[in-house]
Structure formats: C-alpha cells, structure tokens
Design goal:
With 202 residues, the protein is of the alpha/beta class. The protein is 35% helix and 21% strand. The longest helix has 20 residues. The termini are far apart. The protein binds guanosine-5'-triphosphate and magnesium ion. Guanosine-5'-triphosphate binds next to helix 1.
C-alpha cells in the first residue's frame, strides 16, 4: 500500500479557477472511461477521484496534492472522445484541457492512458501528435490489463510499441483492479520528479 498522503486542492471548470503554479504537476489524460480516475485512486491509495462506469464522469480538472518523497500534484483531466455529449459541451471540455496543457509551466509530465484491449485509437494518436508538437513530455501507460490473459500481454505490448506510439519511456502496463504496475508507475514518477526538480532548480 502507498504511504503517499493526498488531498484534493482544486476543482476547476474554467481556466481562471486553476490553482497557482507551484509543485510539479503530472497530468493524467486519456479517452473517457479509460480509467484515469481509477488509476489515480490506485496510485494514491484512496478513493479520492470519482469513478463511474458511465463515460464522461469527470467534467472538471481536479488537482490532487500528493505528499510523496518529493511533493507534487496529480491532475485528473476530463476524458475526450465521448460522442454522447453535445458538440458544444465537448468543445468546452477540449478548450479547458488545452488551456491547461498549453499554458502550464509547472506541468512536468503527461501520462497518456490507453486501454490495453484497444491500443491507440484515432483520437489517441491525435492527442499524442498534438502533445509532442507542443514539446510536452509524455509517458504512455496502458490500463485494464487485467482484462487480458497474462501470457498474451507481452506480445501485445511489443505490437503496440512497434506500431509507433510516442512515450518518453517504455509504456507501463497497469490495472486499477488488481494493482498490476501501480508500484512501478509510482517509482517511475519519483525518479522522474527527482530529475525534473534538478532540471528546473539548476
Ligand atoms: N477491469 C478494470 N476496470 C477498470 C480499470 N480501471 C477502471 N475500470 C473501470 O472503468 C470504468 C471507468 O473508470 P474511470 O476511472 O471512471 O474512467 P475515467 O477515465 O476517469 O472516465 P472519465 O472521467 O469519464 O473520463 C469504471 O467502471 C471502472 O471501474 C481496470 O484497471 N480494470
Ligand atoms: Mg474520470
């Protein structure tokens, strides 16, 4: 279990509600229903973010301060690609996410969650292209690997990597259900943040 303590410090429905920049931020992005809020809860070991089987649950940007070895914020973003919402509503969400990702100096890393059963779909590829055009560091993380038989996972991962995804490191396979990869992802965050803090302090 995690020894990280965490608290929700801000819920933003519009950019003027973003908290002041301070601690480095790791933002969790991905399609609606991919498991962003679930993985965030697994990482901090608390049911802090709201989870739902209905896509489109998270509508605001939620900032969770994490008191780890080096303090940082985990940022739960609303999902994209949820067709059942009106176009206006989808546009509002997209603009909110873009305003956050484009202007945020304290943004250290985007963690792009992709459902391991489906791999990168069209709008996932669009997000990856957009993020790399903005020069924002991004790690690809697969979710819901518990749905795929253990013996098949490595082969699927190799296939996805070879088909050209963008990630600053080898993608991590996770499950919020059985906690596969959660410890590995925590360790990745800590070593990444240590290097990030060195970079920005010097
Ligand atoms: N089997 C399995 N189900 C998962 C996993 N992670 C999430 N789920 C389920 O997937 C559904 C969506 O999870 P959320 O965490 O709410 O997804 P989200 O990406 O935050 O969704 P939005 O806020 O709508 O964008 C819920 O029913 C979760 O229980 C996982 O690792 N394994
Ligand atoms: Mg959510």
């Amino acid at each position: 279990m995690s020894s990280w303590k965490s608290s929700l410090i801000c819920t933003a429905f519009e950019p003027r509600q973003f908290p002041p920049e301070g601690f480095p931020e790791i933002a969790i992005a991905g399609r609606s229903n991919v498991g962003k809020s679930s993985l965030l809860n697994a990482l901090i070991g608390q049911k802090a973010a709201h989870v739902s089987s209905k896509p489109g649950k998270t509508r605001s940007i939620n900032f969770f301060k994490v008191d780890a070895e080096s303090p940082f914020c985990l940022v739960d973003l609303p999902g994209y690609g949820f067709a059942a919402r009106s176009k206006t509503e989808q546009d509002t969400w997209r603009k909110l996410i873009e305003r956050y990702l484009i202007n945020r100096n304290s943004l250290a890393l985007i963690v792009h969650l992709v459902d391991f059963r489906h791999g990168l779909l069209k709008n996932d590829k669009e997000l990856q292209d957009w993020v790399s055009a903005m020069d924002i560091p991004m790690l690809t993380v697969f979710t819901k690997v518990d749905k795929i038989a253990r013996g098949k996972r490595k082969g699927d991962l190799v296939k996805y990597v070879k088909s050209g995804l963008r990630s600053i490191d080898m993608p991590i396979m996770t499950s919020a259900e059985d906690k596969t990869g959660v410890e590995e992802l925590r360790a990745f965050f800590l070593s990444y943040l240590a290097e990030w803090n060195d970079l920005v302090e010097n």
